[in-house]
Write a structure and sequence with these properties.
By secondary structure, the chain is mostly helical. The protein has one domain: Ferritin (Up-down Bundle), CATH 1.20.1260.10. The chain has 13 helices and 2 strands. It has a two-stranded antiparallel ribbon with strand order 1-2. The structure holds Phenylacetyl coenzyme A (FAQ). The site of Phenylacetyl coenzyme A (FAQ) has 28 residues, from helix 2, helix 6 and helix 9. One of its GO terms (cellular component) is cytosol.
C-alpha cells in the first residue's frame, strides 16, 4: 500500500472516530490503535482473572451459606469477564495462548490492586466496596469506547460490577453495625485498601504515557486523575454512612471545586507493585502458571475429544 493510500485510510479512520462510529474487528485500523487495544484489553482480561485469587481465598471461609453463595457468584462473574475480554481481544489478531504467555512471563501487566493480600473477612467487603467501586468508575466510560467488541463487553461487565460493589458494601454495613471488634476489622481493612484503590486508577495524568493518544482514539473517555477524583467524591460519603474514617489527614471538602482535596499518593509504592515487587506478585503469577500447567491434561482431553468427534462426523458423511 502506498503512503498516500495509508494517509487516506487514516483520515477516514479519524473521521469515523470523530463521528463516534464503532470500529469493528474487520475494519481498517492503524497498527498502533490495534496494538494499544491489545495491550489495554488483555491487561484488563488478566486483571479479572488474577482478581479472582484474592477473593477465591475466602470462598471456603465465608461466614455463612448466603455469603458463600454470593462470593462464589462474584468470583464466577470475574472469570466470565476475563473470558469475554480475552475473546474480544482475540478479534484483534492475537491468540489466547499468546496472551497467557505474556501474563505468565511478566510481559503483560495486570492491575496493581490484586497484589495485596486479603487477610480478614472485612477485606471481602472492602474489595467489593472499593475495588469494584473503582472498577465501575473506570469501566462505565469504556461502554462508549470506540472499539465495538470492547464497548459491548463492558455493558454486561458494568452491570455485574454494580452487584459486586453492593455485595461488598453490604458486608461493610453489617460489620459496622456489629460488635466493636467487627467495626475495628472494617476500619483496618479500609486503612489497608484505601490508598491501593486510589492507585488502581493509574498514574497521574502528568505521568500517564498512554492517556493523550487513547483519549484521541476514544479508547479512554476520562483521564486517570478525573476518574480518581470521581471515585473519591463518590466514596467519602459512603464511608461516612458506615461511620468509618478515610485514612487521609489531608482529605477535605473544597467548596470552590465542589470536590474533595486529598493527600499525596505514594507513587513509589505503586511503581514497585507494578514492577513485580508488591506483597503478593510472586504468589499471584505462581498460581496462574500452576493453573495453566495443571490444566494441560484437560486441554489435551478436550482436543482429543474434538478430533474424535470430527473423525466420526467425516466417516458418517462418507
Ligand atoms: N496496575 O499510561 P497509563 C477489576 C500501567 S478490573 C498495573 O496511565 P493506561 C475487576 C499501564 O498499563 C481492573 N499497571 O496507562 C475486579 C502502563 O504500562 P504499559 C483492571 C498499571 O492504559 C474487581 C503504565 O502503567 N481494570 O478491578 C496500572 O492509559 C474486583 C502507564 O499508565 C482495567 O484494566 C495499574 N493500576 O491507563 C476483579 C480497566 N495503571 O501497559 C476482581 C481498563 C497503569 O505501557 C475483583 N484499563 N498501569 O506497560 C484502563 O482503563 C487503563 O489501562 C488504566 C491505565 C486506567 C488502568
Amino acid at each position: 500500500m502506498s503512503e498516500e493510500q495509508v494517509r487516506s485510510l487514516e483520515k477516514q479512520f479519524d473521521e469515523r472516530i470523530e463521528r463516534d462510529e464503532k470500529i469493528e474487528p474487520k475494519d481498517w485500523m492503524p497498527e498502533k490503535y490495534r496494538k494499544t487495544h491489545i495491550r489495554q484489553m488483555s491487561q484488563h482480561a488478566h486483571s479479572e482473572i488474577v482478581g479472582m485469587l484474592p477473593e477465591g481465598n475466602w470462598i471456603t471461609r465465608a461466614p455463612s451459606l448466603r455469603r458463600k453463595v454470593a462470593l462464589l457468584a462474584k468470583v464466577q462473574d470475574e472469570a466470565g469477564h476475563g473470558l469475554y475480554l480475552y475473546s474480544a481481544t482475540e478479534t484483534l489478531g492475537i491468540s489466547r495462548e499468546e496472551m497467557y504467555e505474556q501474563l505468565h512471563t511478566g510481559k503483560a501487566k495486570y492491575s496493581s490492586i490484586f497484589n495485596y493480600p486479603t487477610v480478614t473477612w472485612a477485606d471481602m467487603g472492602t474489595v467489593g466496596w472499593l475495588v469494584d467501586g473503582a472498577a465501575i468508575i473506570n469501566q462505565v466510560p469504556l461502554c462508549s469506547t470506540s472499539f465495538g467488541p470492547y464497548a459491548r463487553a463492558m455493558v454486561r461487565v458494568c452491570k455485574e460490577e454494580s452487584f459486586h460493589q453492593r455485595q461488598g458494601y453490604e458486608i461493610m454495613l453489617k460489620l459496622c453495625k456489629g460488635t466493636p471488634e467487627q467495626k475495628d476489622m472494617a476500619q483496618d481493612a479500609l486503612n489497608r485498601w484505601w490508598w491501593p484503590s486510589l492507585m488502581m486508577l493509574g498514574p497521574t495524568d502528568a505521568e500517564s504515557v498512554h492517556t493523550e493518544q487513547s483519549m484521541k482514539w476514544k479508547l479512554k473517555r476520562k483521564s486517570n486523575d478525573e476518574l480518581r477524583q470521581q471515585f473519591i467524591d463518590q466514596t467519602v460519603p459512603q464511608a461516612d454512612i458506615l461511620g468509618l474514617s478515610i485514612p487521609d489527614k489531608d482529605l477535605k471538602w473544597n467548596e470552590e471545586r465542589q470536590s474533595y482535596d486529598f493527600g499525596e499518593i505514594n507513587w513509589d509504592e505503586f511503581w514497585q507493585v507494578v514492577k513485580g515487587h508488591g506483597p503478593m506478585n510472586k504468589e499471584r503469577i505462581k498460581a496462574r502458571v500452576n493453573a495453566w500447567e495443571g490444566g494441560e491434561w484437560v486441554r489435551d482431553a478436550a482436543m482429543a475429544y474434538a478430533s474424535k468427534n470430527q473423525e466420526r462426523k467425516e466417516k458418517q458423511a462418507v
